[in-house]
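Notes to self after the Tuesday call (sharing in case useful).
The group wants a holo model before anyone commits to mutagenesis around the pocket. I volunteered. Ligand is adenosine-5'-triphosphate. Logging inputs and output together so the record is complete.
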Amino acid sequence: MDVLLEMKGIEKIYPNGVVANQGVDFSVAPGEIHALVGENGAGKTTLMKILFGLEQPEGGTITYKGKPLHIASPHVAIANGIGMVHQHFMLVPSLSIAENVVLGLEPKRGLSFDWKTAVSQTEELAARYNLPVNPTARVQDIPVGMRQKVEILKALMRGAELLVLDEPTAVLTPQETTELFAALKKLKSQGHTIIFISHKLREVKEISDRVTVMRAGRLIGVTDTATATERDISRMMVGRDVVLHVDKPPTTPGDAVLRVEGVRYVADTGKEVVKGVSFEVRAGEVLGIAGVEGNGQRELVEILTGLRKPSAGRVIAAGKNVTGKDCRAVRQAGVGHIPEDRMTHGVAGLGTIEENLIADRYDSKALNPRFLLSLKSVSELGKKLVKEFDIRTQSPKTPVKMLSGGNIQKVVVAREFSANPKLIVANQPTRGVDVGATEFIHKKLLENCAEGAGVLLISADLNEVMSLSHRLAVMYGGEIVAVFPNADEVTEEELGLYMLGVKRMKLAAGSEAS
Amino acid sequence: MSEMLQAIFSTSFAYSVLRVTTPLLFAALGGLVSDLAGVINIGLEGMMLAGAFAGVVVSAFTHSAFLGLVAAVASGVLMALILGYFSLKLKTDIILAGIALNLFASGGTVFLLYLVAHDKGVSTSLASKVLPQVTIPILDKIPVLGPIFSGHNVLVYVAMIAAVVVWYYLYRTPAGLRLRAVGENPNAADSVGISVHRVQFTALIISGILSGFGGAHLSMGYVSWFARDMTAGRGFIGLAAEALGGRTPVGTVLASVFFGIADALSNYLQSLSIPSEFIQAVPYALTVIALAVYARQQTRKRARLAKLSQNPEKKAA
Ligand SMILES: Nc1ncnc2c1ncn2[C@@H]1O[C@H](COP(=O)(O)OP(=O)(O)OP(=O)(O)O)[C@@H](O)[C@H]1O
Ligand SMILES: [Mg+2]
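Result:
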């Protein structure tokens, strides 16, 4: 078979001693879509950063288009037609799409920046690759799916023939994912080669021609996608069988642990983003809220957990009125929170695992037997939780920033679940988390629920909300537009119609979802 | 009192507003460029002071106002390079580096002043030059406008031109686009191969050039001497003007003029029998008040928007 890119015996040891790649061989054929999968921390991003010149390997060779290539910096990669769309977007929010696309390659007229040409270049590119965008819109005003397109256009603008997409779908809605895949297929048909990283095996099956699996820094194997099942791939990734579909136990819900009454929120811009939402979560049940991102879920969650003050309405958690109270008061009422963005609201990156685990209880009697914090108790607690929640680390004293995404999420989950909350607000709890860790987090959520906690699960991943929730609600345009008392009776298609605002139920005001 | 008002509504008052606005405008524009590139320049004050000093000394020794001006700008740039070296290259905190630069400029100029002029206060023993005044041919014949806009020293006009050039640079050139991108998301700029360091260094150097002009205006514009700490907080007022102006060129110009009026006013009020220390505090007090009013308005605006969109609910209830 033809080979476009051949990476051989790649070794990468980070300065802190983490061996991220160990003799990895990776090859890509021209014109294929090649999936790269593996658990969190397997070394996928590292391998791609080496390919893009962002990291230098300790050993190994790279052959590109039949010639050895030393990729000292992203310049070299870009000059050779290698483009990368990063896990975290690299865009300038206040600039327009066109300006972002041409940044660094600005067209000029005399001394001036040639705005018209920038717009027309962007339009041409967008049309050629079927990635429709409005070049004059500002990046800060466009949804995530569109931003992704801008990132891809940016790479194509620089003449990328080999395009690396690092977890491009982690932040996309199902519809946006479908669009992205259509665009990727088009790119492929025009001769581009794509490396695609994802934790969602369904997507891998759908889009890729071949799959390379990595585990713990090593290459495990390469297979043709067509001949492998999701189960096969996940077994290669984790080294054991993974339960891909959870069975939630039936439940007889108790009293309400969360009552939300007519909550409204008006953003600084004057736009009302939460428009009178009311619902209840009862002890021992999971209420799922499905919805395309950006329909008020984030604001709602932040109001429920004390990160934002509502403009109107009441929030009653575990029998206490916590409307407009701060995080601490909300937590003391017994609310746990798994935030959507773990790096901002979930952990302090520079702090150690231990420190992050005690962030909500550093002042508790158990940790402060006399005047001072007992470091011994802290490290005992750290060891216990690291073990119980299977946080993969060399030591509980490792700074959280050094962990992979999935393991950072486990730190958050460990802290929140071990506080014995009466209510858990879980917002996208498994975003960017590998299949093994996802399975684990789902199991823990249901365990806590069976022990009597109420769970409010917000997720853009339809699979996740549908399989975990007892009851389901759909949020659209800042409102709850549908409620299904029995989550098992809904189909994905039907949910989709509500999520897109095509359909809506007539719900009695004030008694929505209760 | 009526004499006072007459004085304020006179063309000579407007003329003096332009004069005192000029150094503030230079500082504010310098602050704007570096701020938009993501490097807050606390060292404007020190850069101006160095410029003011170098201008006087070099013009005294070379007998050339032009060479003095060149030296003023060069020393502004030198100070910017020092700030850049410490904050960008050695990664010290830019605020601390800026403060250190100001202290260094304040002490260093007095020290050098003593060496060259044998005086720790003013440089009157040096025969330094004054920058030429410019009479604008047709304009100076027009009543009102003529006396206000004509006959300033050359840097007043340079400042006006600089405001336009800075706007053009920031918003109409590829370099300006890159500068703003670097200030907002350095990772994004980096990922497309723009050198963040180089852009930020450039921004600091531009800041240094503008501060150098501002300093030269103070010591060679209307007077021909340097006095210790003669910038008297103008670098900081410039920063305030830039913030008050919402980090835009037009806003920065307007805010600078506002502070210029306050400054000119305090000069005029000195003819009244109010303690002069009190009057000298006026521009600074106005700076604080203006910033507070601005912040308050922003909060109010937000609250009003919030109320507005809550009204539909009240109607429905
Ligand atoms: N800059 C860094 N310094 C030190 N260690 C790092 C650094 N970046 C990554 N690592 C470590 O290297 C290992 C591989 O990380 P990498 O980001 O390549 O994993 P990944 O396969 O992309 O995981 P994920 O699916 O979570 O994105 C992890 O153990 C991680 O903690
Ligand atoms: Mg990764």
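Two things stood out.
DSSP finds 17 helices and 22 strands in chain A.
The first helix of chain A runs from residue 44 to 51.
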